């Protein structure tokens, strides 16, 4: 008889603030680099995607209506909760580190990145965009000089529902880098995790559940990119797509979805994930906001 019995965890989806099993009833086992089973994950379906988008659409107006300061507080709370799961996340990243290195995508940028370093950078990235939440509007908006007795202001508004297509590597840092910019601007997001190691994405759902994130603002699906990417691209209630680590064919598929509802698509090809100067810029927020220009009479 063994001294103890290890029960593998089955990670659920995270939709509308809850942890449902996939409606399809499908799951798949995830093995470590040594070939040992370490977890089971839900295999999201098209219906799960639809429910995630519907939840995001319901939640987005309230999230956009919150004060920027409040949104920054929530993102900072996410960073705190991520810190509390540091060891769990580092272990999940390390257990599949050889497999993700073999994928090649982002290999040069993350080859020397240890699991603990990746968690630290992910926390730092959340803190950074928590700080941008009440400042990016001043940087990206402006007071325009015009002729005549008028004031002319350009202000920012969130785009709406953003789908984040996470890279296989780095599994956590890449996901946080795609999620935080649209989230801090008042968008609701639906995440499709990387397929090589989706555990960090599943754990992020647990982080959101304890971080004062309103239900539906963040929705996380674990599944096969090949099954769901076409539905993400053509979904008419998704306003924008933020993707990284996709192949050339997948990028073409995503960009074809623009024809459905004129959604915005931002795909990162070669991204220096560890470069704070490149990844902490407010221009990561810009693709997921709309600009409104207001004219106001001025006294002469």
**Known CATH architecture:** 3-Layer(aba) Sandwich
**What's the rounded overall pLDDT mean?**
89
Q: Pairing-aware structural class of the strands and helices?
A: alpha/beta
Tally the beta strands.
11
* Overall number of domains: 1
Inertia-based shape? globular
Q: Largest sheet, if any? A: 5 strands, parallel
Number of helices: 13
Q: Order of SSEs, N→C? A: EEEHHHHHHHEEEHEHEHEHHEHE
CATH topology: Aldehyde Dehydrogenase, Chain A, domain 1
Taking the alpha carbons of the first and last residues, their distance comes to 90 Å
- Helical proportion? 40-55%
Radius of gyration: 20 Å
What is the H level of CATH, i.e. the homologous superfamily?
A: Aldehyde Dehydrogenase, Chain A, domain 1
Strand neighbour order, sheet with most strands: 8-7-6-9-10
How much of the polypeptide forms β-strand, as a percent range? 15-25%
| Uncertain residue segments | 98-109
CATH class: Alpha Beta
Please tell me about this protein's structure.
This protein has about 300 residues and is α/β, with parallel strands linked by helices. The chain has a single domain, classed as Aldehyde Dehydrogenase, Chain A, domain 1 (3-Layer(aba) Sandwich). About 45% of the residues lie in helices and about 20% in strands. It is built from 13 helices and eleven strands. A five-stranded parallel beta sheet has the order 8-7-6-9-10, sandwiched between helices. Strands 1-3-2 form a three-stranded mixed beta sheet, with helices on one face. Helix 8 links the parallel strand 6 and strand 7. Helix 10 runs parallel beside helix 11. The longest helix is centred in the first third of the chain and has 20 residues. The radius of gyration is 20 Å and the shape is globular. About 5% of the residues have low confidence.
């Amino acid at each position: 008889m063994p001294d103890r019995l290890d029960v593998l965890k089955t990670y659920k989806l995270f939709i509308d603030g809850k942890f449902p099993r996939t409606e399809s009833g499908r799951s798949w086992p995830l093995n470590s680099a040594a070939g040992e089973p370490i977890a089971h994950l839900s295999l999201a379906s098209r219906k799960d995607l639809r429910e995630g988008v519907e939840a995001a659409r319901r939640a987005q107006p309230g999230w956009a209506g919150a004060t920027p300061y409040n949104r920054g507080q929530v993102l900072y709370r996410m960073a705190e909760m991520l810190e509390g799961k540091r060891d769990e996340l580092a272990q999940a990243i390390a257990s599949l580190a050889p497999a993700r290195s073999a994928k090649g995508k982002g290999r040069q940028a993350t080859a020397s990145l240890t699991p603990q370093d990746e968690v630290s950078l992910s926390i730092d990235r959340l803190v950074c965009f928590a700080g941008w939440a009440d400042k990016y509007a001043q940087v990206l908006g402006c007071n325009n000089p015009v002729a005549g007795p008028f004031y002319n202001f350009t202000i920012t508004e969130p785009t709406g529902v953003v789908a984040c297509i996470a890279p296989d590597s780095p599994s956590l840092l890449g996901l946080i880098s795609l999620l935080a910019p649209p989230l801090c601007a008042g968008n609701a997001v639906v995440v499709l995790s990387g397929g090589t190691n989706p555990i960090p994405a599943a754990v992020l759902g647990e982080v959101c559940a304890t971080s004062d994130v309103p239900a539906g603002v963040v929705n996380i699906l674990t599944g096969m990119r090949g099954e769901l990417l076409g539905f993400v691209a053509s979904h008419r209630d998704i306003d924008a797509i933020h993707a990284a680590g996709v192949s050339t064919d997948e990028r073409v598929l995503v960009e074809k979805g623009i024809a459905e509802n004129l959604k915005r698509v931002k795909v990162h090809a070669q991204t220096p994930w560890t470069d704070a100067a490149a990844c902490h810029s407010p221009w990561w927020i810009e693709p997921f906001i709309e600009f409104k220009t207001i004219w106001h009479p001025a006294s002469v």
